[in-house]
Amino acid sequence: MRPSISISAAPLLVCAVIGTTSLLAGCPGSGADSYDEVVDSLVDAIIIPGFAEFAGACEILSESARTYCDVRDPAVLQAARDDWRNARGLWKQQDVFAFGPYSQFPDRFGSNIDFHPMRPEQLQALIAGNDEIDAARIAGLGATGRGLPAVEFLLFSDEVASDDRRCSALIAAGEDLAALAQENLAAWDPASGGFARELTDPGGEFADSEAAAAEILSRVGFLLENMRADSLLRPLGGGGEQAQPEIVTSRFSQHSIEDLFGQLNGVERVFEGGPARIDRGLATLLRRRDRHDLIEAFRDRIEDARAALRAIDAPLQSAVVSDPARVRDAVDALGSLQRLIQADIANALAATLTFNDADGD
Amino acid sequence: MIERAARPVDAAGLGALRVFVGLIIFAATARTALLGRIRSIYTEPNFHFTHIGFEWVRPLPEPWMQLLFAALAIAALAMAVGFYARYSAAATFLLFTWIELSEKAAFLNHYYLLSLLCLLLVALPGDRALCVWPRRPGIQRVPIGAYWMIRFQLSVVYLFAGIAKLNSDWLVRAEPLRTWLSAHAEMPVIGGLLQTSAAGFALSYGGLVFDLSIWVFLLLPKTRRAAWALVVVFHVSVGLLFPIGVFPVAMIAATTIFFAPDWCRWRHPVESEVDQAPRPSLRPLHGALAALWIIVQLAMPMRCLLYPGPVNWTEEGFRYAWRVMLIEKTGTLEYRVLSDGQESRVFPSRELCGLQYRMLVTQPDMILEYAHHIRDRVGGADTAVYADAWVSMNGRPAARIVNPAVDLAREPRSLLPAHWILRAPPAP
Fold first, then answer.
1. Angle at the Cα of B109 (from B247 to B150), degrees rounded to 5?
2. Which of residues 161-190 of B touch A (CB under 8 A)?
3. Which of A12, A139, A330, B217 stands 20 to 30 A from B84 (CA)?
């Protein structure tokens, strides 16, 4: 008789242990984690109010563009341009949240609201044609012909005063932008099931609150890199070419440097938890680790960066040609802040543990 | 020695290990696919980091890479159920190792361990044990030396993981554990405790003692059960605190090899049953191959001694050396490129995926390899590439890790010590 060998309870026990381990390892910790508090606070005090404020500003801009086209009054035009600058500043503050609906298909609100460089020729062709111009037509142009840059192109041209079709395009672009801003808000708003829930109730896109906070910290660092590489070095000819003043952001409104200030404000709000430093930001996590030195270093370096930006004689498209040294100083000052965040602060917060796509050992 | 190693024993323990390794690789493969990492790590990036000597191993383009993963999943399952066990283990080893070698940024010590275990399961007997499909009744006998080889391999992992912890950051500053634990400050029940400096030191020294000694207690029959229970507690705890994937599961499963060879039988076979099984043989060639394996496995973790400077900073001799959970390293990197009299800057984050970028910024050999990539892409014999690389390690202020005055375009990739890696900053 052949011996019958069966698998015993012992390996089943091992399998049970292994299975339990796997399950437990995948479970996020419960309770009031400091990361939970910080991420919740960033969502409640900065992300959602920031996008809501931007949506409100776009409504006002849309209305003021319509009013201008009705009355064609220079004072109203100036007010409409101020409304654009306000909306623009609020958007650049939110640039730091360049993930989720900002970059993910199908929404990609980052591109649809603020594609750079936009293609004026699309709008020019539309204005020169005979088709009816409405918000749907503007949306049909795609990211390169809509959003804040499209409104800027139309609004900051003297031709808007005399060209009815240009005014029609302005009204349509304003309406499209206002609608986009509302959709963007809804896409983030946790109350309507938006993406911010991924941050506040991790387990899906982010494994836990640490991963969510690490993502935000990572975006802060890469925003600073984008400011240096795209907004300053490229116009400066940092790719080895001659200066390219025509590729600065917001060139029609000469708002480029203010764009950078807006982005720095966004960085500061995420770090401090808000302008009044009353809510919880990334600094809260450093404070709990007694890393006050890094908080002070951040404040010093962001002020250095602001000073370097202030030292540039606006507009930026002139400065990259006439005074490139000061632009380079700003690149370096922003680089110093980027280094502090991506190396020192990320290290103190052990952000690599959650940065890692794979499993770190 | 060979005579002692040839003593026949039940192959069931080896069979159980084969089942565990197959299932773990299957799970890891499925997880990689489900999380979209085949694309994000292997097929989407235009550039891939290679291992010296294996530059020819590259990820396949879509859809072949997906098919490669599918084939690996099938092979791993086949290995687990015992379907042509040795062949499926060989296929699992080749496919798994190819994938691991095709992107250096994705290197993980526990994946290296799984590759080694697969290779051992190909080389060692035991392929007929615990075969579920097709079912192969009866007892397979194997030389006890086969168990010794696996036990040796796992002991090496623990021993060198322990030795690697004998550094001032670990012993004097309890870093990086102290920083890592502080992220769990408000965990229920133990959160407050984890925040304390004492907890950092206690767990640092506890981990050190565990790594240095657990393999000894696993080898001793009297302490084996208690030691394995400790293995479970230790790895479950580590798995709960840190995102280290399948590593805890792999170690808990693999260490069952320290139990008696028939630990997973319902009942112990009677002597007559054992006698019916064919008796295994050992030849001097087997002994020579085992000796070679042992020498290589001891030499690999110790090769870091041939390089100057702290290995945790330079990372020369860091990989394939069981240096696990030792460093918290973060950094920034950009390159200054001079070509045809023009200076430009290159930001590698623009081309690489997140994982590649995070590995690149702190690892000098990868910084050199990417510099060569820039040189080749820019072209021109006079192209010079300089790295502006800053790294913070275990709480130290960020410091340059690469000499910014050295033209990396002219530095060869080699296993020799790199003169362009700067010294580590002192601990704060």
1. 75
2. 176, 179-180, 182-188
3. A12
Distance CA B14, CA B356 (A): 36
Which residue of A20, A353, A356 is in closest CB contact with B180?
A353
Token reading at B392: 């913070």
Is the pLDDT at B329 greater than 90? The verdict is yes
Please, are residues B34 and B310 in contact by the beta-carbon 8 Å criterion?
no
CB contact under 8 A, B138 and A207: no
Q: Are residues A186 and A322 in the same domain?
A: no
Using the 3D structure, point to which of A173, A199, A225 is the last residue of a domain: A199
Q: Which of B49, B328, B378 to mutate to test the interface with A (most CBs of A within 10 A)?
A: B328
Distance of CA A123 to the CA centre of its chain: 25
What residues of chain A lie within 8 A of the CB of B397, using their CB? Answer: 344
The model's pLDDT over A48-68, given as tens digits with 9 standing for 90+, comes to 999 999 999 999 999 999 999
- ipTM score for this prediction: 0.90
User: Out of A21, A241, A339, whose CB is closest to B248?
Assistant: A21
Contact state of B398 with A349 under an 8 Å Cβ cutoff: no
Rounded Cα gap, residues A226 and A223, in angstroms: 5
Q: Which residues of A touch B235 (CB under 8 A)?
A: 21
Structure tokens belonging to residue A64: 């003021």
For chain A, residues with pLDDT lower than 50 are: 1-9, 11-13, 15, 19-33, 354-360
Looking at the structure, tell me whether residues A286 and A327 fall in a common domain. Answer: yes
Nearest CA in chain B to A340: B398
The answer to whether A247 and A236 have CB atoms below 8 angstroms apart is no
Residue spans of the domains in chain B: they are: 9-142, 144-260+283-323, 328-410
**Touching A: B residues 352-391, CB under 8 Å:** 353-355, 358, 361, 390-391
CA distance B212 to B238: 17
CATH code for the domain of A239: 1.20.120
| Residue at a domain's end among A199, A218, A239 | A199
In DSSP terms, B345 is beta-bridged to B336
Q: Is residue A28 part of a domain?
A: no
Q: Do A347 and B328 touch (CB under 8 A)?
A: yes
- pLDDT tens, position by position, B214-225: 999 999 999 999
Range of the domain at A317: 202-355
B270 in contact with chain A, both atoms CB, cutoff 8 A: yes
Say if residue A207 is in the same domain as residue A133. no
User: Residue A276 domain-assigned?
Assistant: yes
A224 with A299, same domain: the answer is yes
Same domain, A65 and A190: yes
Contact A18/B184, CB-based, under 8 Å?
no
Residues in B touching A233 (Cβ below 8 Å): 345
Residues A353 and B243: their CA atoms lie apart, in Å, by: 7
Give the closest-approach CA distance of B358 to chain A in angstroms: 8
Sequence-distant (≥ 6) Cβ neighbours of residue A256 within 8 angstroms: A231, A248, A249, A250, A314, A315, A316, A317
- A232 and A191, same structural domain? no
How distant is the Cα of B284 from the closest Cα of chain A, in angstroms?
Answer: 32
Q: Which of B425, B372, B363, B370 is nearest to B400 (CA)?
A: B425
For residue B177 the two structure tokens come to 């554990």
- Token pair, residue B226, equals 């208690």
